[in-house]
Each structure stands twice: as C-alpha cells, then as structure tokens.
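User: I'm writing a tutorial on reading structure tokens. Could you give me a worked example: one chain, its sequence, then its tokens, then a sentence or two explaining what the tokens reveal?
Assistant: Sure. Here is the example chain.
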Amino acid sequence: QVQLVESGGGLVQAGGSLRLSCAASGRTSFSSYKMAWFRQAPGKEREVVAGISWTGGRTYYADSVKGRFTISRDDAKNTVYLQLSSLKPADTAVYSCATDSILFMDALRLRVDQYQYWGQGTQVTVSS
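And here are its predicted structure tokens:
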C-alpha cells in the first residue's frame, strides 16, 4: 500500500518561504511515477499547485504560483519537495501530495480524480 507523508508546513509571514516534503513508501519504484502537489483552502475546492513527471524533466505550475513555487524530486530518498517562496495570505491552505498508479507516463495530470494515493496534508498559514 502506497503511503505519502507530508511535512514542513507552518505559520509564516507574507513574503516568507517554506519547503514542504512528501515522503513515499510502499512502492518498489518511486522514480517510475509522477507526483503532484494540491492545496485546499477553507471553503474552496482542492486545486492542483504543481506536478512533476517521473523523469523530473517535465513540470507544471498553476498560474497563481508560477515563479514563486518550485517542485522537485529526490528519487534516492523517495521524496518530492515543494519550495514555497514569496508567500501570500492567499496561499494559506492544506497542502497535499499525490501520486497515481500509471508507470512511466510522461504527461502530467492536473485533476484530483486522476490520483489514487494521497497524503494527509500539511497546513500552511501565511499571515499578512
């Protein structure tokens, strides 16, 4: 059973930075699967923030975070990261990582229903 555990969230002032981590276990080949970060703010639907292909060569960012957030992966550590910079109060949300069950798929997926495995999430709160 695939398990994803996020960490690194917290309270930060506007303009600050955080690095989120998502450690995966229960999968024999972490490097063969795409990964993504989503977020859900109170009263809003979960939305994709960033995605990274299984090779790491393709990435996607939502327009709202482009230029401020960076997704990366360390396959040796079975971990995907999301570096958050220039944070805004609008970035306040629970951030969750996700992965699917399709091997070696280069195309990125951006919908919640396309991912089968989810972490429990980590809270990011940005104060003004």
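What the tokens reveal: The radius of gyration is 14 Å. The chain has a mean pLDDT of 95.
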